[in-house]
Amino acid sequence: MTVTTALVAGGGGVAVALIAAAVYRDAVRVGVDLGSPAAWAALVVCTGGASLVTLVLVPDAPLPGVLVLTALGPLLYLLERDDSMNGDDAADPTRLPSQSGESADSGDDPDR
Which residues contact 81 (CB under 8 A, 6 or more apart)? Predict the structure, then answer.
């Protein structure tokens, strides 16, 4: 193992730990519906750790695949977080989730 590989692995480990701590803190604050905050932090640690192990042990691994594996845990958490915050409303294909229930631009105005 070269010095560069050791520095990348060490820095990556610190980054994964910081991201897992941020996910845990946010999951506690938001109150994610599915799973516990510790489970979401563990998912981030597992996906980040797997990507670091892949990067160190398989030097010819394609970088896009390693990055996808790294981003998988935080991405799944963000999707569940968004669903926990906005998932109780019934789906309405005619409006965006950020729009209020009654909008002035709804197109129902006959004067337009």
Answer: 26, 27, 30, 32
> How far apart are alpha carbons 42 and 30 in whole angstroms?
17
What are the domain boundaries of the chain? 3-85
Give pLDDT tens digits for 43-94: 999 999 999 899 888 889 898 998 999 999 999 999 888 888 876 667 778 8
Q: Which amino acid is at 100?
A: S
Decide if pLDDT at 108 tops 60: no
How far apart, in Å, are the Cα atoms of 26 and each of 3, 10, 41, 84, 110?
Answer: 34, 24, 10, 12, 46
Cβ within 8 Å of residue 51, ≥6 positions away: 12, 66, 67, 69, 70
Residue 69, amino acid: L
